[in-house]
Amino acid sequence: MIxxxxxxxxxxxxxxxxxxxxxxxxxxxxxxxxLLDVKYDWNQAGTPTDWSYxxxxxxxxxxxxxxxxxxxxxxxxxxxxxxxxxxxGEGQTxxxxxxxxxxxxGMDTGNLFLQYxxxxxxxxxxxxxxxxAFTHAHSVGAQRAACASTGNTSASLAMYCAVSQLxxxxxxxxxxxxxxxxxxxxxxxxxxxxxxxxxxxxxMKRVQEVCRELGIYLVNxxxxxxxxxxxxxxxxxxxxxxxxxxxxxVVPGGNLGNSSSFGKAFIELKQLGLIDRVPRLAIINAxxxxxxxxxxxxxxxxxxxxxxxxxxxxxxxxxxxxxxxxASTIASAIEINRPVNFDKCLRALDFCDGVVRKAxxxxxxxxxxxxxxxxxxxxxxxxxxxxxAKMLREQGIIASSDRVVCIxxxxxxxxxxxxxxxxxxxxDKFNEVxxxxxxxxxxxxxxxxxxxxxxxxxxxxxxxxG
Length: 466
Ligand code: F0G
Hints:
Layout: E1 7-11, E2 19-21, E3 36-40, H1 42-45, H2 51-56, H3 64-67, E4 94-97, H4 99-105, E5 112-116, H5 126-139, E6 144-149, H6 152-164, E7 168-174, H7 180-188, E8 192-196, H8 200-214, E9 217-218, H9 224-240, E10 248-252, H10 257-272, E11 280-286, H11 291-298, H12 310-322, H13 342-351, E12 355-359, H14 361-373, H15 380-394, E13 404-408, H16 416-424, H17 430-434, H18 455-465
Parallel strand pairs: 5-13, 6-7, 6-9, 7-8, 10-11, 10-13, 11-12
Antiparallel strand pairs: 1-2, 1-3, 4-5
The structure holds ligand F0G.
């Protein structure tokens, strides 16, 4: 048996609810076109509802499935049988109490935590979801897997293909910004890299067409199995807080896979009785890619029991088309105007009493510098979570006594260009070098000190600045 009987796929639209077998490769409802969930009959799955069961696995981490930060929660995503799971040891992440950043955000000492997903083998949170989607792809006998990507998904897919040698990776990137750290991974791991003349939103559309045409397995987060793996980020946060639920989870929003999966995680944990309350969710867009913010906060679009007001959505997307407005931000990972998980994200916001904010490139880069000074750096998109927490704190929505977890989605070395430009470039050339607009000051720049090659001058400089 490859798949578990207790698992199936189901359309999320309340008026449709069509069910599909777990072995089917559909990535969207054939009947009404909505997104699909992976669902479980928890009783049949026999999922333990006591955290100590999961905790005890750590003592047996010589077994790869117990070592993996995804698969030691296997019973909470029980779609595959253990022998078909593909793991490279992902999910060894860190929840860091970050008092330095806490001060910047305006929290009481000890109340701000950074969930550092940059520690994953490919350097971003994507490995959580990729391990799950890859497991499904392998289980259905896929030979090739594809994704559109702003960089991290492609790095992760390329890594799973290369390490396992089970599939060939085909990745689509836009011709705009892709951070070099990420591109270098895809190239080095041997992925077929297709750079199309367009942005991420164009690449996302094309990859779906190509996958349908050529029967390639699609691993973007529209694939519901990706989200199953990403639920475990929340399990690990709870684990590291001694199974106590924090007050807030703050996460950057791009294609909205993470936020959607976090919502699903809390819905299921509540159903299973593993938690008795739910944290609030804050999703932070970049100001230059603010579809969710605009639709949720300004135009009032809500989950509404699954009956989302499509007219408002459509007129917004029509406006984008008419004005030819493209997403543009230094946080290239979230430079996305048409998030594929929009509906599921609304469900998450509904369940977690969520809010959405947008952070400017200036706020993102300054927050990133503050995270960096704390020692564990991140890429620009990740810092949107910290910038957003600061904003919500200033607005009095987050209290200084709340317990807040910001998700740092990607490693600092993913995008060295942005970091080096921030710290070294003259203010007037800043926007030009970074290819952005609106960043007026590198407020926390750590400038290199230029000295002549003379012992006296070097000593003088160290005494002056040290
Ligand atoms: N942070 C980083 C570092 C990312 O790479 C992404 C998404 C996000 C945040 C946004 O997460 O889509 O779940 O809302 N990167 C995708 C990619 C789109 O192709 O690597 P989301």
